[in-house]
């Protein structure tokens, strides 16, 4: 008996045909003619061909009839299979479908429609119609006319067939049993997923089950490192303190089936015929026997490799067992990728929350009102960039009608920067006796903050100004901050006055020089942070100190009070930036001497 | 499809190969357009027809109703066995005059 005959003894031999038909009436006939020819080729008598042809035309017409615009884009699928004793057709469509009537009867003779289902029913032995959301299936079947003569096989052949059937049954039972075990295991993992987020623990149990179900002795699971350069070892089974598999560099020279599988995106089998190379690290776990290494992917992204080993030389893995490896590992891969996505999302959420907290702190530091200081008039603004920076300003009454102006930029973002701004603010406010000596005030603040700032490698640029209304002057000191801009009436250009000096937090014993600048009537002065001069336009070009100086001079000429000046200047900056996102905080204090 | 007047009262349609969902509405309208109120009888020569489905039956019934209202008839001439089978399965062989 040849193998083809054996297979027909095992289960009835059926041939089948599958056709996709466009969901329109004009496509129906040519498709059913193809089916008719195919059935004729399978020996169906002429009498049956006509019946099938008509039944199929009616079935497909029905699908087309109930198609809406969306469904018309999806094909109707005809699957027809032909066995020794019967023919079965399955028609799948993606339409809204229809309600199968309780009784399929003929309509009145005058009715121009409603005979399709009756024809289908009359021409076949059984019809069933399964309607579901978005997909409907009609199954038609009809017995074939009995073939001319049944040849009885002799007794030896019958015995052979019986033996074949038994072998087939045993194979199927084994296959079914392992499929059942794997299904049960996968269901169990799925239900445990919510509780178990520890990938290492989860993968270990999954791998242990896989080893058992696939009748393996050992397994190695490796994952690609976050930088994509190494294969890190996640699991080695059986786990042993004597065996440790170092990470494998993908670009390295080590000969390894795991690297081979990862590079070529394929399963690699090894065994007595094709043993592992002498220096393959896997030899530590699988010195002899058979093995298969599976490289696994999710959405085309390489995730890792899983290798199963069996230490017996005479028992290679079967296709069904390799199938188990694929099923288990592909399931694990999805969990790994999900866990990573969850991590990324959590980080993003925490970051968002942190930025919100930082923004709240930053806002709370700003003075609610700016005290009056005649004959000077002041206006201030602090615009936060998306990634909250550490800008802040303060305006503190300094006695005798004077004001202490503070403008600072903590290098860094988020909550730490906001916290240092808060600390700087209270440190400065706690030393009113030094308000009229900005240089000394900065030096003292630096000594106080230095230990904390240097520990976290942060620093602060700050400018402090004592605004003296009695002597119509401003006394400034600067810790690495932007200069003071001054425009005097009648001048064509503005002037940048300032000294640099170390920022706070760099050197504990820094001394800060003071500069006195007279502010005669009509003068406009500005303290600002580098967010202004470093504004970028859509092309990414920076505004720069010189252009800012020009904009400031324009502001001085075109406006008379500092509120209008602030609006004008910020408007000019916004025009410059266009659609570009604000990259850094923009903070400024404008001081106008009203004549 | 060919539509001819045999005489003042009778129109003959021939050359139809298929009458199915894809063409049934169009065929019905073309034949109707060729049936002025004076025509009472329609002879459909089905000798070339290889396939008829339930939509095609709808066209035949529609024409039948039009002519019945004029006290006329639709005659089906020389249908092939498979076409005749569709008519008899749906019991419409009883309402048409069929000439083999």
Spell out the blueprint of helices and strands.
The complex is a heterodimer of chains A (595) and B (100).
Chain A: H1 3-10, E1 15-21, H2 25-41, H3 46-65, E2 76-82, E3 86-93, H4 116-123, E4 126-132, E5 135-143, H5 155-192, H6 199-213, E6 218-224, E7 230-237, E8 248-249, H7 257-264, E9 268-270, E10 290-298, E11 301-310, H8 319-365, E12 376-383, E13 390-397, E14 403-410, H9 414-429, H10 438-455, E15 460-468, E16 473-479, E17 484-487, E18 495-497, E19 515-518, E20 524-528, H11 530-533, H12 545-558, H13 562-577, E21 586-593
Antiparallel strand pairs in A: 1-2, 2-3, 3-5, 4-5, 6-7, 6-11, 7-8, 9-10, 10-11, 12-21, 13-14, 14-15, 15-16, 16-19, 17-18, 17-20, 20-21
Chain B: E1 2-5, E2 10-14, E3 18-19, H1 24-33, E4 41-45, E5 51-52, H2 54-68, E6 73-77, H3 81-89, E7 97-99
Parallel strand pairs in B: 2-4, 3-5, 4-6, 6-7
Antiparallel strand pairs in B: 1-2
The largest beta-sheet of chain A arranges its strands as 8-7-6-11-10-9
- The 3D shape of chain B can be described as globular
Mean pLDDT of chain A: 85
> What is the β-strand count of chain A?
21
Q: Indicate the CATH class of the largest domain in chain A.
A: Alpha Beta
Proper CATH architecture of chain B: 2-Layer Sandwich
Helix content of chain A: 25-40%
Helix content of chain B: 25-40%
In percent terms, what proportion of residues of chain A is strand?
Answer: 15-25%
CATH topology of chain B: Transcription Regulator spoIIAA
Going across the biggest sheet of chain B, name each strand in turn: 1-2-4-6-7
Q: What is the string of SSEs of chain B from the N terminus onward?
A: EEEHEEHEHE
Helix count, DSSP H or I runs of 4 or more residues of chain A: 13
CATH class of chain B: Alpha Beta
Summarize the main sheet of chain B: 5 strands, mixed
Parts with pLDDT < 50 across at least 5 consecutive residues of chain B: none
Largest sheet of chain A: 6 strands, antiparallel
How many β-strand runs of chain B?
Answer: 7
Largest interface: A-B, 25 and 23 residues
CA gyration radius of chain B, whole angstroms: 12 Å
What is the overall number of helices of chain B? 3
């Amino acid at each position: 008996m040849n193998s083809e005959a054996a297979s027909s003894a095992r289960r009835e031999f059926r041939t089948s045909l599958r056709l996709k038909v466009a969901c329109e009436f004009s496509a129906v006939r040519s498709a059913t003619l193809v089916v008719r020819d195919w059935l004729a080729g399978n020996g169906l008598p002429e009498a049956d061909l006509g019946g099938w042809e008509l039944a199929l035309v009616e079935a497909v017409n029905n699908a087309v009839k109930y198609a809406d615009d969306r469904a018309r884009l999806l094909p109707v699928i005809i699957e027809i299979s032909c066995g020794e004793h019967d023919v079965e057709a399955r028609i799948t469509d993606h339409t809204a479908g229809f309600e199968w009537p309780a009784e399929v009867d003929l309509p009145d003779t005058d009715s121009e429609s409603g005979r399709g289902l009756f024809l289908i029913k009359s021409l076949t032995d059984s019809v069933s119609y399964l309607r579901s959301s978005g997909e409907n299936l009609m199954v038609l079947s009809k017995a074939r006319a009995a073939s001319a003569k049944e040849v009885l096989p002799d007794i030896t052949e019958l015995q052979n067939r019986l033996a074949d059937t038994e072998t087939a049954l045993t194979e199927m039972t084994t296959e079914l049993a392992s499929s059942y075990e794997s299904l049960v295991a996968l269901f169990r993992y799925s239900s445990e997923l919510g509780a178990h987020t520890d990938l290492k623990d989860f993968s270990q149990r999954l791998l242990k089950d896989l080893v058992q179900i696939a009748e393996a002795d050992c397994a190695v699971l490796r994952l690609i490192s976050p930088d994509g350069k190494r294969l890190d070892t996640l699991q080695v089974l059986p786990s042993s303190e004597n065996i440790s598999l170092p990470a494998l560099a993908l670009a390295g020279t080590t000969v390894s089936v795991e690297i081979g599988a990862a590079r070529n995106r394929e399963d690699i089998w090894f065994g007595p015929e094709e043993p592992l190379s002498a220096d393959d690290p896997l030899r530590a776990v699988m010195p002899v026997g058979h093995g298969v290494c599976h490289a696994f992917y999710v959405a085309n992204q390489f995730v890792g490799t899983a290798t199963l080993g069996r230490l017996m030389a005479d028992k290679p893995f079967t296709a069904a067992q390799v199938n188990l490896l694929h099923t288990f590992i592909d399931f694990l891969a999805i969990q790994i990728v999900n866990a990573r996505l969850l991590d990324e999302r959590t980080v993003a959420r925490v970051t968002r929350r942190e930025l919100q907290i930082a923004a709240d702190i930053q806002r709370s530091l700003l003075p609610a009102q700016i005290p009056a200081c005649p004959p000077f008039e002041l206006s201030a603004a602090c615009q936060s960039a998306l990634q909250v920076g550490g800008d802040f300003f303060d305006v503190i009454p300094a006695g005798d009608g004077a004001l202490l102006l503070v403008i600072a930029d903590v290098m860094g973002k988020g909550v730490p920067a906001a916290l240092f701004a808060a600390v700087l603010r209270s440190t400065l406010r706690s030393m009113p006796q030094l308000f009229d000596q900005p240089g000394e005030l900065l030096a003292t603040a630096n000594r106080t903050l230095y230990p904390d700032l240097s520990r976290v490698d942060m620093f602060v640029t700050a400018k402090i100004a004592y605004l003296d209304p009695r002597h119509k002057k401003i006394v400034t000191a600067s810790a690495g901050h932007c200069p003071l801009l001054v425009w005097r009436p009648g001048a064509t250009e503005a002037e940048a006055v300032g000294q640099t000096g170390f920022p706070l937090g760099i050197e504990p014993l820094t001394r800060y020089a003071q500069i006195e600048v007279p502010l005669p009537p009509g003068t406009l002065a500005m303290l600002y942070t580098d967010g202004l001069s470093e504004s970028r336009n859509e092309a990414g070009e920076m505004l720069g100190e010189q252009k800012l100086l020009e904009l400031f001079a324009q502001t001085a000429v075109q406006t008379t009070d500092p509120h209008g000046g602030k609006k004008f200047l910020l408007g000019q900056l916004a025009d410059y930036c266009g659609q570009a996102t604000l990259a850094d905080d923009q903070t400024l204090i404008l001081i106008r001497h009203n004549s | 499809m060919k539509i001819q007047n045999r005489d003042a009262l009778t129109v003959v349609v021939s050359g139809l190969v298929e009458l199915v969902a894809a063409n049934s509405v169009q065929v019905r309208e073309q034949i109707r357009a060729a049936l002025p109120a004076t025509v009472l009888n329609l002879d459909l020569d089905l000798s070339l027809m290889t396939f008829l489905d339930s939509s095609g039956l709808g066209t035949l019934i529609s024409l039948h109703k039009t002519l019945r209202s004029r006290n006329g008839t639709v005659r089906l001439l020389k249908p092939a066995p498979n076409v005749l089978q569709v008519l008899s399965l749906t019991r419409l062989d009883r309402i048409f005059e069929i000439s083999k």
